[in-house]
Backbone:
C-alpha cells in the first residue's frame, strides 16, 4: 500500500493544530474583505449621488479584489514556505528524516505540498469575497477559473522559491530574507530592468512607444506580468494595469508571443518553479558540504 | 556488523578523521570514547550517511554506506545527541510519523509503536504531547523512535548526556535488554564508568585516530604498565622523592599524605629494583602496589598530550 507522503501528513496535522493557520486565514480574508467591501461601498455611494450606474466600475471591483488577493499572496507565500526545511534543521529533526527511507525529494515535495495546501486554503476561503462581483455580473465562472489557475501558478513558483531558500539556508531568518529578496528581484527587478531599458531606448530613438526590446521577455518570469495578462484578457485595459507594464502591451503588438502572453508566462513560471525545486532537492542531497563543522 | 577502514575527513584545514579503523562485532555493545574534537560525531555521521568520507570506507553488514546507503539505513537506528522532536505532536503520532518514514503504516505502525513505548516505559504517555515530557522521557522516546523499523544495529551519540542518575540507570537497563535481544549497540559517551560497566568492547579515539580498541580486559591488559604505582611510606619521604625524581621511568609524582602516587613507565623487574632502591636508602616503605586500571585512567593517559616530565603535585585535604 502506497502511503501519503509522511512529511505532508505530519505537517498538515501539526499545522492544523497551530494557531498560525487560522490567524493567517483570518488576516488574509480580513484585509481582502475590508478593501473589497470599501471599494463596493464607494461605488454604491457614487451611484446614489450621481444616479448614474456604470457597470464597468463593477468590473473594476473584480480587478481590484483580484489584485489585492494577488498582492497578499505575493506577500504571504514566501513567509509560509521559507521556514519549512530550515525549521527542521533548527529543530534538528532533518538529520533524523534523512536517516530514514525518505529521500531529499520526498522531504522537498512533502513540504511544498503542505505549504501549498495552506495557500490553496487561502485562495478557496476568499471565494465568497471574490463572489461579490457575481452580484452585478460581468465576470464568468471561466474567468474565475483562469484567475485561480494564475494564482496556482504563482503559488507554485513562489512556494518553490521559498522551499529552495529554506533548503539552502541554515537559519529560517536567512531563508525568509533571501526568499523575499528573490521574489522582489523577480517582480520588481524585472520591471525595473524593463523601465530602464525602455527609458534608454526612448532617449536614443525617435519612437515614443514604451518598448524595452528583447528585455520584455524577462517579464515572462514575473508573476505580476502573468497576472496583468490574465486580468487584461478578462477586463480589457479598463483595470488600468497596463499602466504598470506598458512594455507587454507593446510586445504583444510586435513580438512573437502575441496574445498568448499569459499562457507563456504560466509555462515559463512553472518551468522556473521546477528549476527551484530541483535546486532544493540537489541541495538536500549535498547536505554535508554545507554542514557546520562538529567533530 | 560494522567495519571502518582508513576513514578520512577534512573540514577546511582541520583534519577531523585521519585514517580511522574500527571493527564492531555482531551483538556487541561497543563504547566509542574520545575527548571533545576527537572525531566521534564525524564518525557517527559517516556511518549513517550524513557525511561522505574523503577517503576510506564504512561497511555495515558488508555493505558500503556510500554506495548502498538505503539498504544500510534500513539496518540502522540512530539516536542523536539532540532530541530531534516535534513539540506539537503527541507521543503516538511522533512514533507513527517515523514509522511512515520507514514505509510502515496503519495498524502495523500503531502496534509497533505501542510495543516500543511499552519497552521504554512510555506506554502510559501515548496521548501526551512530546513537549510535555521530561528530558529523560524525551530521550527514551528518541530511543523508541530509533527502533521503530526494528534495526539490528543501533547507533547512539551521547545518549545519556544531561540525564539524572536514575534516568541514566534506567537507560542502561534498556540497553542491556536490547543487547539481550541480539541487537548490536554502538554508543558514544563521555560517562566512562557507565561504559565500562555495560560495554563489551571499547574504542578510544583521539585526534581522528583509533588509539586503543578491544574488550575492557584487553584494554586494561594493554595499558597496565602505565597505571599509577602507589608507594606508602611512614618515614624518609624526602629521600624517597629524591630517588623518584631522578629515576628514568618516573613520569609524574603526586603526594597524598603518606602516599606517593607515581606514574611509573617500567615493567615488574623495574618496579622490584625501585623498591629495593628505596629500602636500601632506608625509606620506611609499608605499601608498594600498582593500582588497578579503569577506563577513566586509561582514557586520561591515552588522551594526555602534555610534555612527559617529572611533575611534583601535592594534594591537600
Residues:
Amino acid at each position: 500500500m502506497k502511503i501519503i507522503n509522511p512529511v505532508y501528513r505530519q505537517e498538515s496535522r501539526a499545522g492544523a493544530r497551530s494557531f498560525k493557520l487560522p490567524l493567517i486565514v483570518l488576516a488574509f480574508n480580513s484585509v481582502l474583505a475590508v478593501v473589497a467591501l470599501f471599494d463596493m461601498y464607494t461605488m454604491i455611494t457614487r451611484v446614489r449621488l450621481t444616479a448614474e450606474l456604470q457597470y464597468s466600475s463593477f468590473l473594476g471591483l473584480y480587478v481590484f479584489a483580484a489584485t489585492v488577493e494577488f498582492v497578499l499572496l505575493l506577500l504571504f507565500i514566501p513567509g509560509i514556505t521559507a521556514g519549512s526545511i530550515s525549521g527542521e534543521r533548527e529543530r534538528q529533526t532533518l538529520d533524523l528524516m534523512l536517516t530514514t527511507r525518505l529521500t531529499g525529494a520526498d522531504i522537498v515535495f512533502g513540504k511544498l505540498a503542505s505549504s501549498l495546501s495552506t495557500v490553496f486554503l487561502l485562495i478557496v476561503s476568499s471565494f465568497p469575497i471574490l463572489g461579490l462581483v457575481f452580484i452585478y455580473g460581468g465576470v464568468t465562472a471561466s474567468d474565475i477559473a483562469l484567475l485561480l489557475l494564475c494564482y496556482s501558478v504563482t503559488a507554485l513558483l513562489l512556494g518553490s522559491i521559498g522551499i529552495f531558500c529554506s533548503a539552502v539556508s541554515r537559519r529560517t531568518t536567512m531563508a525568509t530574507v533571501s526568499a523575499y529578496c528573490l521574489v522582489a528581484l523577480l517582480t520588481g527587478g524585472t520591471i525595473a530592468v524593463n523601465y530602464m531599458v525602455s527609458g534608454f531606448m526612448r532617449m536614443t530613438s525617435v519612437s515614443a512607444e514604451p518598448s524595452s526590446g528583447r528585455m520584455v521577455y524577462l517579464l515572462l518570469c514575473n508573476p505580476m506580468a502573468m497576472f496583468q495578462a490574465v486580468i487584461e484578457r478578462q477586463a480589457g485595459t479598463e483595470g488600468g494595469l497596463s499602466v504598470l507594464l506598458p512594455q507587454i502591451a507593446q510586445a504583444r503588438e510586435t513580438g512573437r508571443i502575441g496574445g498568448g502572453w499569459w499562457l507563456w508566462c504560466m509555462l515559463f513560471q512553472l518551468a522556473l518553479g521546477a528549476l527551484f525545486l530541483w535546486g532544493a532537492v540537489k541541495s538536500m542531497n549535498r547536505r554535508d558540504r554545507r554542514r557546520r563543522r562538529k567533530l | 556488523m560494522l567495519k571502518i577502514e582508513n576513514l578520512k575527513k577534512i573540514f577546511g584545514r582541520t583534519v577531523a578523521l585521519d585514517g580511522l579503523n574500527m571493527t564492531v562485532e555482531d551483538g556487541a555493545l561497543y563504547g566509542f570514547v574520545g575527548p571533545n574534537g576527537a572525531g566521534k560525531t564525524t564518525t557517527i555521521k559517516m556511518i549513517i550517511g550524513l557525511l561522505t568520507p574523503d577517503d576510506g570506507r564504512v561497511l555495515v553488514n558488508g555493505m558500503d554506506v556510500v554506495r548502498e546507503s538505503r539498504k544500510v539505513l534500513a539496518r540502522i537506528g540512530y539516536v542523536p545527541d539532540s532530541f530531534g522532536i516535534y513539540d506539537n505532536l503527541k507521543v503516538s503520532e511522533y512514533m507513527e510519523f517515523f514509522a511512515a518514514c520507514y514505509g510502515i503504516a496503519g495498524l502495523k505502525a500503531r502496534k509497533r509503536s505501542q510495543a516500543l513505548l511499552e519497552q521504554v516505559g512510555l506506554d502510559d504517555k501515548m496521548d501526551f504531547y512530546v513537549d510535555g515530557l521530561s528530558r529523560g522521557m524525551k530521550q527514551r522516546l528518541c530511543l523508541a523512535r530509533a527502533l521503530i523499523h526494528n534495526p539490528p544495529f543501533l547507533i547512539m551519540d551521547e545518549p545519556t548526556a544531561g540525564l539524572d542518575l536514575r534516568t541514566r540507570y534506567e537507560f542502561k537497563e534498556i540497553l542491556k535488554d536490547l543487547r539481550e535481544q541480539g541487537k548490536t549497540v554502538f554508543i558514544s559517551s563521555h560517562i566512562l564508568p557507565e561504559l565500562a560497566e555495560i560495554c563489551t568492547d571499547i574504542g578510544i579515539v583521539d585526534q581522528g585516530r583509533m588509539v586503543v580498541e578491544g574488550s575492557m580486559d584487553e584494554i586494561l591488559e594493554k595499558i597496565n604498565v602505565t597505571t599509577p604505582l602507589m608507594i606508602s611510606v611512614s618515614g624518609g619521604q624526602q629521600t624517597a622523592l629524591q630517588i623518584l625524581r631522578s629515576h628514568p621511568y618516573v613520569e609524574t609524582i603526586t603526594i597524598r599524605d603518606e602516599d606517593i602516587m607515581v606514574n611509573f613507565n617500567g615493567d615488574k623487574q623495574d618496579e622490584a629494583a625501585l623498591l629495593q632502591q628505596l629500602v636500601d636508602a632506608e625509606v620506611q616503605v609499608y605499601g608498594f602496589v600498582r593500582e588497578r586500571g579503569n577506563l577513566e585512567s586509561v582514557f586520561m593517559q591515552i588522551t594526555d598530550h602534555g610534555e612527559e616530565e617529572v611533575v611534583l603535585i601535592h594534594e591537600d585535604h
Observations:
- The first helix of chain B runs from residue 40 to 47.
- Chain B touches chain A through 41 residues (CB under 8 Å).
